[in-house]
Structures are given as structure tokens and as C-alpha cells.
Amino acid sequence: MKHEYEQARLAALESLDILDTAPSVQLDELTKAVQAEFNAKTCLVSLVAEDRQWFKSRQCMDATETPRNISFCTYAIAEEEYLIVPDAKADKLFANNPLVTGPPFIRAYAGAILRNKDGYELGTLCLLFDEPRDFSKDEIETLKGHACTAETIIFSEYSPAYL
After folding, report:
1. CATH code at 86?
2. What contacts 16, CB < 8 A, 6 or more positions away?
3. 93, 87, 84: which is closest to 144 by C-alpha?
């Protein structure tokens, strides 16, 4: 799944020069807190590049990236604000996804979009669960708020002029 403005979106991501950089203490603190708040198996700051999603911050995930063609976050960035998948095994789009049928055995997903000031979707702040899970409107708003915090951290570290 690619955006109609995919090249501009990728250029916006590349302009940050953030891919494959060292971990961010601030983002790691954020993902750790969000993981605990939602009692999630995993919390990630995922940046969606051309052929992969790369994890700038990750809690309880060994992999540093996954192929974009199996990425839940690829679908999330096509949404207006967020993507919620309460039960991936029961979802036609994700039921046969290797990330559902194999490690990390994603059962539920919640991702809030990370954007630059021009509105280009760079990735998500996302939560992974190993059991089905519904999300209340308040929880979605909270996750979106945490995504705004992640955006602020990213731009303060990689593009201070953007703030």
C-alpha cells in the first residue's frame, strides 16, 4: 500500500536523517511508559520507509525492523489519525499476516500516526498485544496524545528548526 504522494512522504522522512540512528533516551522513556500504561506486550516508534518499517524505539521487541509489505503501520499511515485492530486473527486484512501467524504473534494493534508539520505521515507510535483487545475513545485519544509527544521529541532531536 503506497500513498498517492509517496515520494514526498519518503523525502520528508529522509530529510530527518533519522533512519538507522542510535536509540533516543527520551523516546525509549516514552515507549516504556506507554507500554506500561496500556499493559501492552510491545510499544514502538515505527518509521515507515520505502521497503521497511524501522523501529526508532522499541519495548519488548528484538527485531529492529520488519519488511514494509507485512507492516501493520503501513496501513495505519494510510488512515487519517490512527488504526485499531482489536483482533488480528479475525481481521480479513491481517489474519494471514506472518506477524500474526508467527513471531511476534500480534493479536491486537493500536497505532497513532506520527506526522511532520507539512502533514506527511512518517510512521506511528504503536502498541502490540498478544490477546484481542478493544480500545475506548479515551484510550485512543490518550494514544494520539502520546504520539504528539513522540513527534515533538523526534523533531527536537532531528530537526529543531521544525518546532
Report:
1. 3.30.450.40
2. 116, 122, 154, 158, 159
3. 84
Q: Is 121 part of a structural domain of the chain?
A: yes
Residue 125 has which C-alpha cell?
A: 507510535
Structural domain total, the chain: 1
Q: What are phi and psi of 40, to 5 degrees?
A: -90, 155
Is 97 within 8 Å of 74 (Cβ atoms)? no
Q: What is the pLDDT of residues 23-57, one digit of tens each?
A: 999 999 999 999 999 999 999 999 999 999 999 99
What residue numbers bound the domain in which 23 lies? Answer: 6-162
CB atoms within 10 A of CB 139: 16
pTM for this model (two decimals) = 0.94
Query: Does a structural domain hold residue 1?
Result: no
